[in-house]
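DM from R.C. (forwarded with permission)

"hey, sorry to bug you on a friday — could you get me a structure for this? deadline for the figure draft is monday and I only need the backbone to look sensible"
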Amino acid sequence: MSVLREKPPMSKSKIHEMGSVLRKNGVIALDDWETYLLHQEEIVSELARKLNDFVDSKVMPGGKTTEEIIVPGSGTYKVTRRVKSVVSLKEKLRRMPKTPLERIQDVAGARLDCDVTLTQQQRIAKGLYDLFTECGANRVDIKDLRDGSHSGYRAIHLHLRFPAGFAEVQVRTALQSRWANIYETAADIFGRQIRYLHEGTEVLLLPEAEINMKLLCELSTLIAQVEEMRDEHLGMGFSNVSDYDVRHSQEKISIMEDRIHIILNNLNEQFRDTQRRSL
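My reply, with the result:
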């Protein structure tokens, strides 16, 4: 039987208790914590395997890559997974004081970054809804976060509830992925709290950080515009590629994408330099 269909190796009350201790920065029995983490790793490993099988068989056969960055036009995809670290988990438990550990959605998380359009991204999410339902999920909620209201972050999330527990799967386009990865680097430099600015968190930012946050927010909007244009363009179904309007649209999209990549590359290099200097 799949681990996703099996109940956790410890009771909900035990997991709840561990979460309460973590929230207060207390000490948890090492054996209990290792048992919990091992189970979360089993969940996320199974999710990643099913994601890979789904994309390779139904979306992008042979498109799997080991490259760090998914490039637009490459026809590639990448599946990653992680179990939330203790530091991140404590942060989340304190930020969500009424949510017990057993109901934290993304302790086990997998991510699919792929070279697709917005429409294709939506279709993939619906396909994964069916897949995880077949795999035993009691509930699958699709959360469309592509409006930029989450501090500029854009993606589609699937919140999963299995007999084994809760989990989250993120589906991102190439540009959404690149932006998010650089924003994570910025959070490592300027403070993890910048990830929650959309929640009204009051954060005192240095001038450099404030400038970069504004630029990343503007880039997120530009990325959304480019992806909407490309989605609309490809959905028109033109067969006459010599048509002036079509060629003009293609050129405009390419110019905008090039601009985005230049700015993202510059920001990435700037952030990496800052990290190297701080070592």
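R.C.: lifesaver. Residues 244-278 form the longest helix (35 residues).
me: no worries. The chain has two domains: 3-173, 178-278.
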